[in-house]
Amino acid sequence: MLRKNKILTLLIFSVSIILFSFLLQKADNEGYLTDNNIIFKNVNSFTDSLFKGKNMQNKIIKSEEEWKNVLSPDQYRVLRQKGTERAFTGEYWNHFEKGVYCCAGCGAELFSSDSKFESHCGWPSYFIPLAEDRVYYVEDKSYGMIRTEVLCSKCDGHLGHVFDDGPEPTGLRYCINSVAIKFIPKK
User: Fold this and answer.
1) Are residues 99 and 179 both part of a single domain?
2) E strands, 13-170, in order
3) Torsion on CA atoms 164, 106, 85, 93, rounded to nearest 10
4) What is the pTM of this model?
5) CA 179, CA 84: separation in Å to the nearest integer?
6) Are residues 100 and 12 part of one domain?
7) Are 76 and 105 in contact (CB under 8 A)?
8) Residues 6+ positions from 37 with CB-CB distance below 8 Å
9) pLDDT digits (tens, 9 = 90+) for 100-111
């Protein structure tokens, strides 16, 4: 009886995987998972028009061993390995002092507190970077989704993702990991 249950469970799991793969392929074929889809249209038009080809001066290049020596284990996991901290656990998700948020890897100034807003998503959220050359974007197809990854232009550190459900004036929400940034209060 136990063996029969295991076989049945394995069969159900296999059929589920096949069905999910089929539906994912069908959605991709119909344009639901492409970056031309309406969900990504605002992000792509905004990033293409303002940020394409922009790079920060004085790029920081370190070996993975050097990064491990200067970052905490959590910072390394997020900034260098593209990890994510759990929602509502980071230092800055509910932080609204005046100042600037810098990259925890290299110190580049990335976001102003003036562009920070409460998005109720559990991560610090901003509607625009401090300057157009501070971040750049990469299509992220991990976990069966297509998202727009946000990286630091100076050190290539993974910061988080940008979505098109933010407030005016951009309509964007830069969802950034707290561990990837450091806050410097306004003097």
Assistant:
1) yes
2) 99-103, 109-112, 116-117, 125-126, 135-140, 147-152, 158-163
3) -60
4) 0.71
5) 9
6) no
7) no
8) 31
9) 999 999 999 999
Same-domain check for residues 137 and 47: yes
Higher pLDDT, 56 or 99: 99
Q: Provide the domain count of the chain.
A: 2
**Whether residues 57 and 95 fall in one domain:** yes
184 forms bridges with which residues in the sheet?
100
Evaluate the CA torsion angle 141, 181, 54, 37 in order and state its sign. Answer: positive
One domain for residues 114 and 169? yes
If asked whether residues 66 and 9 sit together in one domain, one would say: no
176 and 126 Cβ atoms separated by less than 8 Å: yes
Lookup: tokens for 152: 């630091």
- Domain assignment of residue 10, given as a range: 1-33
Q: What is the mean pLDDT of residues 52-73?
A: 82
User: Is 155 an active-site residue?
Assistant: no
Kindly state whether residues 26 and 70 are assigned to the same domain.
no
pLDDT in tens, 85-139: 999 999 999 999 999 999 999 999 999 999 999 999 999 999 999 999 999 999 9
Indicate the burial class of 49 (C-beta count within 10 angstroms; 0-12, 13-18, 19 or more).
exposed
In this structure, are 15 and 47 located in the same domain?
A: no
Q: In one letter, which amino acid is 66?
A: E
